[in-house]
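Provenance and format

Records in this collection were gathered into a single text stream. Each protein contributes a sequence line and a token line. The two records reproduced below are adjacent in the stream.
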Amino acid sequence: MLRNDLYIMEPFVENNAVLQVPVKINIHHPIFKGHFPGQPVFPGVCMLEMIQEIMEAHLERKLRISKGPLIKFLSMIIPDKNPLLMVEILYETDGEKISARGKIYHENIIFMKYHLELIPEKV
């Protein structure tokens, strides 16, 4: 899990199945020493994991991403310049399947747009 290590979820707001989740990046996390040395960038796979972990915390169950019909990285997240992010998630449930779409952004910069399908993790 990356939560409470690479990033911290601040208290969030839910309005009509839309989550607005402020996230604070730990700019001193060791991942930035390797991704990339001298020019740290928040890894795209960590953005996906962050969305999954936010949904798990919100729905109080373990999930996994089963499909990613749309995953579009639009701008790099430079931790020193963008330590605060907003994760927006509009979600719908259909039985066990959860459809989540939204964006990761800060002010007028959109870093990622996505549409993911999540399902319960088999333990």
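Adjacent record:
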Amino acid sequence: MLYSEKVMDHFANPRNVGAIEDANAVGEVGNKKCGDIMKIYMKIENDIIKDIKFKTFGCGAAVATSSMATELVKGKTVRDALAVTNKAVVEALEGLPPVKLHCSVLAEEAIRSAIADYYRRQGIDPEPIVGCSCDCNSCHDDG
């Protein structure tokens, strides 16, 4: 399995690792088949993601996609963050082996889950804005 230099860099030197104690958006997703778990913490102010950190339990590709996803949305608006797809994460990493594409999907889902949490904390139903909040384990039973 061959990884790009960008994937190796984000695995060896992940950006934005850790937790945010006063986060106002937290999302956690996982894949039962591979065992990867991603947790994203955000500090959102005036609709801007001022800070973002992650904790990932998983393979190198899971760490790299989490790292890249946080880099892609840091400093962006919530709306711009929701537009970040797993494809954008893969492109920013200059590719992933097909067997590891699910890691980029988890990264996208973790961002969506955190943003859904952000809206819930404000008493806003996130589904019309976020779509699937990716908090449902049943979605991942077959993946």
